[in-house]
Specification:
elongated
Amino acid sequence: MRARRSRAVSLLVTSVVLTGFLLPGAALEDEAAAPAPGTDSQAPAVVDLAQIPAEPPVQPAPPAARELFGADCDTEINGSQVVAFCHNGYPQTDLVRLHVECDRWWDVDGDAAAVAVHPAGRVELAGRCWKEVRSAWVSHQRQ
């Protein structure tokens, strides 16, 4: 059988070798940290306690509560057809309008007429392009 070095011996040898690599760098670091002879070293920072405010700064006022308005609309694009389903869950009437932007430069974009969505009401808006639809969205307006 062959004799093998134990794990403890190999760890000890490895740590000695690594320490030999690190010592020259540590010596250079100490020389760089020490000020050169004949130069003035910087004085430590001094804090004047009179300049620190006694109270924290005034907090800005919280923003006003957001007013509840606007129907919730889901838009579906299927080929060249666009359908928007809107439901108004708020107490004010919302005027919704479907806007369709067509992908081809020669295809006319469409803006539907405004449709009133009363409180707890639902509407379905439809639009189309001759070819592909680039984007579609619904705008909201107060009545």
